[in-house]
UniProtKB/TrEMBL annotation:
InterPro entries: EvaA-like, EvaA-like_sf
Domain dTDP-4-dehydro-6-deoxy-alpha-D-glucopyranose 2,3-dehydratase: from-to ranges: 28-230, 267-470
GO MF term list: lyase activity
Database matches in Pfam families: Hexose_dehydrat
Protein name: Oxidase EvaA
């Protein structure tokens, strides 16, 4: 662990007083610590044939890829029928993981300033190996030690009966394109205990984490979804809410719930309920081998689509010196190209609004969830007719740099996806921008989106990443 005195980096974090606890570090010390953890731990990920998977096999009758324990997850087939105008029916592989995992951040105050206990964690699908993870990031199979390895560190703070104060606790969805009905428990707990500090963990202020959120491939998806849910009251007050008319001030004011919204909360909820009531999304699990009829090729080393689009399913062997189990094999979903998530924002009546869409994905649990204005893999639409390209995709791609307020590339869930990455953009549109008539899109304030996070299955994990990014201003 790197220890140092407080200097100008931490003063910018709102800490002007001396801190006695040597667990607190500056930003410079964080980067030194993070690099040291990368050097101290050994990681290796290799692609392997499916036949070399240990504990995994294809079921003879269904062709489903399953684990011998009956736990963790399986890769199965899914048939989907929707009322989309273009490609309304299809089949695909899907990850089925019915168990609910825990994504938890432990909070402790040092000299009155909240700090989050974050982890430098390797996942096999991460582009750069090590990323900043929550205090606890574990499936039920993992924290129940089905793998036969070590216990999940700090899990005791997130179990019933712990002495911590729960600041947030809710079930949130994950990627509906590749998971069927997947949810995880997102939980934030504050403690007054003296917490033993493991060498792969560090305490960071929310301001420090905000800076890291602006770096590519630094803060992992599991951290971003929990950070989006952190109660605003935990963050330090910001005088810029009523400040200088800047975009930063507009973000903070919109997040705070001040200012007039175009639609009241009841209208927002009724609109989404109406979309869910009328939109068709029929999901049927089928044997994995059945989707070969729909262009999916089930090979010895990869499951892929004959069109060269969408995603593959691959197998990997993993060695990691700082995980509960030091080596294992597993399947991963490998997207064929990067995704694009764009949130268009506009000041309406002096209040910053975001243009969100109600979107259905193959594995969505509750018909539709709110997501970014643009949510797609652009390469999948390269040969699509103009009328079937995602709305606002071309607008976003042609946006002048001066309108871009956030531009960062984040990795997605490295425990299930291989080198999955999305480019996250926030674009402030012109004053005369008017959306095309489309009842799948609606203007909401950032505060309204924050209030919906207290409920399950309202915001996609991708929109939560964008909310975490906006809260980094």
């Amino acid at each position: 662990m790197v220890h140092s005195a407080i200097h100008e980096d931490t003063a910018r974090d709102g800490r002007s007083d001396a801190v006695a606890d040597d667990a607190v570090m500056s930003m410079a010390d964080f980067h030194s610590w993070f690099n040291a953890r990368a050097r101290a731990n050994s990681f290796r990920v290799d692609r392997i044939p499916f036949a070399d998977l240990s504990g995994w096999d294809f079921e003879p009758d269904t062709g489903n890829l399953v684990h011998a324990s009956g736990r963790f997850f399986s890769v199965e087939g899914l048939r989907v029928r929707t009322d989309r105008p273009w490609v309304s029916e299809w089949a695909q592989p899907i990850i089925v993981q019915p168990e609910i995992g825990v994504l938890g951040i432990l909070v402790k105050r040092f000299d009155g300033v909240p700090h989050c206990l974050m982890q430098a964690k390797m996942e096999p699908g991460n582009i750069n190996g090590l990323q900043i993870s929550p205090t606890v990031q574990a499936t039920r199979s993992n924290y129940m030690k089905v793998h036969g390895g070590a216990a999940t560190k700090y899990m005791e703070y997130f179990r019933p009966g712990s002495r911590g104060r729960v600041l947030f606790d809710g079930l949130q969805s994950e990627q509906g394109s590749w998971f069927l009905h997947k949810r995880n428990r997102n939980i934030v707990v504050e403690t007054d205990d003296d917490v033993p500090l493991d060498e792969d963990f560090c305490w960071l202020t929310l301001d420090q984490i905000r800076r890291l959120l602006r770096l590519d491939h630094m803060v992992n998806m599991d951290s971003r979804t929990v950070l989006a849910c952190v109660p605003p009251a935990l963050a330090r007050p910001d005088a810029r809410i009523d400040g200088d008319g800047s975009f930063v001030a507009a973000v903070h004011r919109s997040l705070s719930g001040r200012g007039r919204a175009v639609h009241d909360p009841g209208h927002v909820l009724s609109w989404l309920t109406e979309v869910r009531a009328r939109q068709e999304l029929v999901q049927r699990r089928v044997p994995l081998k059945e989707i070969a009829e729909d262009g999916w090729r089930l090979g010895h080393e990869v499951i892929d689509h004959q069109d060269g689009k969408y995603f593959d399913v691959v197998a990997v062997s993993v060695e990691a010196s700082n995980r509960e189990v030091s080596s294992w094999t597993q399947p991963l979903v490998a997207p064929r190209q990067s995704g694009l998530l764009v949130l268009l924002v506009k000041r309406i009546g002096g209040t910053l609004h975001a243009l969100v869409q109600a979107r259905s994905d193959a594995g969505t649990l509750n018909i539709a969830e709110l997501t970014a204005t643009v949510h797609c893999q652009p390469g999948n639409y390269a040969d699509a007719p103009a009328e079937h390209r995602p709305p606002y995709l071309d607008y976003a791609l042609a946006a002048p740099p001066g309108r871009v307020r956030l531009d960062v590339v984040h990795s997605e869930e490295g425990g299930r996806f291989y080198h999955a990455q999305n480019r996250y953009l926030v674009i402030e549109v012109e004053d005369d921008f008017a959306p095309e008539p489309d009842d799948r899109f609606l203007w909401t304030t950032l505060g309204q989106l924050m209030s919906l996070l207290s409920h399950s299955n309202y915001l996609t994990v991708e929109l939560r990443s964008l909310m975490a990014g906006l809260r980094s201003f």
